[in-house]
Structure formats: C-alpha cells, structure tokens
Amino acid sequence: MAHPYHHALSSQKKWGGRVEDYLAIHAWFDASKEIIADFRHRALRHHAEGIFMAETIFGMTITLSSGRIIPTRWVGEQHVTEDLGFIPSFADWVRAIQPAPWMGRTQKIEVDLDPHSPIRELPHA
Ligand SMILES: [Zn+2]
Predict the structure, then answer these.
(1) Range(s) of the domain holding residue 18
(2) Distance of CA 29 from the midpoint of ligand 1 (Å)
C-alpha cells in the first residue's frame, strides 16, 4: 500500500514544487487508516465524493512552493487512481458492503403529542 509520502513524490514528479506541497492532501486521504488498518479504510475517502471533500478542506487550488497553482482535485484524482486504478463513486463502495440486520434497525422514537408543546414533529431520519 502506497504511503502518503510516495504519493507526494509522484505529485512532485507530475507538477513540480516540493514533496511537502502535497503531503497534507495525501495524508488526509489515508488518515482513515486510523479507523481500520487494512485496505477497507479506503471506503471513507477514496472515491469521487472524497476528492471533492478534499477541495472543501484544502481549497479549490493549492499554490506550490514553485509558485505554480494547481487544482486540488488533480492531487486527489492522482491519489485515488494510484491506489485503485480508477476513481470509484461511493455507490461502488456501498455495493461491496454486505447488509447486516443492525444497519436497518430503527428504535421507537417518542413523539410529544401535546398540541401546546413546541415540539410537534420530529424530523425523519
Ligand atoms: Zn490512499
């Protein structure tokens, strides 16, 4: 499994600047290893929505130490493609999850039926 540093080296080769220009983005993609140490950690951020989330966090563009400005999305697309060979959607990951009974359970929700109560309706989950 590629380390964020190796992804950053690859970014530097593509777009210049320094390895440090890219490390935070690549480390963010792989930070889900803190949750699960095997390749399934990738389900959290290694998909199209994860790439757009990186834009939200790091901005639409990054400015390299060379002064060059590149889209943050390029770095995310590079990371995910290097790891998986393509950019899946989150739906691709969901299709690989085996449904278990606990996932669909709902608890009975107490609703206050008092017409004078400020709580009239609970939002649906
Ligand atoms: Zn990764």
Answers:
(1) 4-104
(2) 6
